[in-house]
Amino acid sequence: xxxxxxxxxxxxxxxxxxxxxxxxxxxxxxxxxxxxxxxxxxxxxxxxxxxxxxxxxxxxxxxxxxxxxxxxxxxxxxxxxxxxxxxxxxxxxxxxxxxxxxxxxxxxxxxxxxxxxxxxxxxxxxxxxxxxxxxxxxxxxxxxxxxxxxxxxxxxxxxxxxxxxxxxxxxxxxxxxxxxxxxxxxxxxxxxxxxxxxxxxxxxxxxxxxxxxxxxxxxxxxxxxxxxxxxxxxxxxxxxxxxxxxxxxxxxxxxxxxxxxxxxx
Length: 265
Known about the structure:
By secondary structure, the protein is α/β, with parallel strands linked by helices. The protein has helices at 10-16, 19-27, 31-39, 59-63, 70-80, 110-124, 137-146, 182-189, 201-215, 219-236; strands spanning 2-3, 43-45, 100-105, 129-134, 151-152, 243-246. The strands form two sheets. It has a four-stranded mixed sheet, with helices on both faces.
């Protein structure tokens, strides 16, 4: 799932850009339940990151802020100041409105809808109510690009089998197609002629690391840069992974280096 750091709504934007909010959302996802109910126990729950078969993989990239912990999730939301609730237990945002999140889909997968039903049940326990909104792919993407969408659900990183020589562009705001920061990506693509200038210490650092990766040919240095990028992602939760791999990826029982293995959700 992709919280949109460039959403137009100023209240939701402030919340989504608060790492405590993103961590709370991740901690509030019952990945084991999703794995058992939706994937028959054949998936590996975790963050949207590299797969175990990647030479750059570390368990912390998959597990950090990904264990189901309602107590910690509620604590983080309280720390933000979302302590007031309505009669049904839904937290109230700073303007007094209930914390309702609309998660948009491309309307192409009943599987995504089924997953969101399970997420809905667990997030209710931390005082957040979600609604799924299906549409068509073009409408889905345009709404995200324009900032109308606060959160969406789509497949995870396209290449989960990265090496030091793989481009980190997918983990950095370099493209409008990145659903968690489309306007920052557009800014990069257009050399500042469109979109929004990236902000935030960690986001700026990611862009600096990406530039360093492009400017070096040394394998060891590229690996170190990748390690820093993946550490930032696992800690900052720019996307909320649900299943970090599936045994059916690429038509076989295990992902192989001959195909682009990815985190599904």
